[in-house]
Amino acid sequence: MEIWINPACSKCRGALSLLDAEGADYTVRRYLEDVPAPDEIRAVLDRLGLEPWDITRTQEAVAKELGLKEWARDAAARDTWIEALAAHPKLIQRPIITADDGTAVVARSEEAVRDALGRG
């Protein structure tokens, strides 16, 4: 199990605390420093069953600078969104936990973290 975090994020710290309390075996990826490549983002999106705009933090300053709210949200625009997430990792919603069973969750709640734990 791997968790993508921003250490400054309270939701990330909460997820880590819960994982630790449950004795989970996981690795931490500080995705702002160890930026995921576009192919890694695609793989996580597939595991999440989501599209890139579903995991984009549209309230970030860079999102506003890029005008993301006006971007198309369709198959033709998918790669453009993924490239933007790779170029500006701060836009990636956090934390994301990739479970050992091949799935992933956006773990912003205790329930979502527990869901990931149940997947192994």
Automatic annotation (TrEMBL):
Keyword annotations for this protein, in alphabetical order, are: Oxidoreductase
The answer to whether the entry has keyword Nucleotidyltransferase is no
Cited InterPro entries: Arsenate_reductase (IPR006659), Arsenate_reductase-like (IPR006660), Thioredoxin-like_sf (IPR036249)
Q: Can you name one GO molecular function term for this protein?
A: arsenate reductase (glutaredoxin) activity
Q: Name one Pfam family in it.
A: ArsC
So what family is this one in? Belongs to the ArsC family.
The identity of this protein, by name, is Arsenate reductase family protein
Organism for this UniProt entry? Streptomyces tabacisoli
Lineage, please? Bacteria, Bacillati, Actinomycetota, Actinomycetes, Kitasatosporales
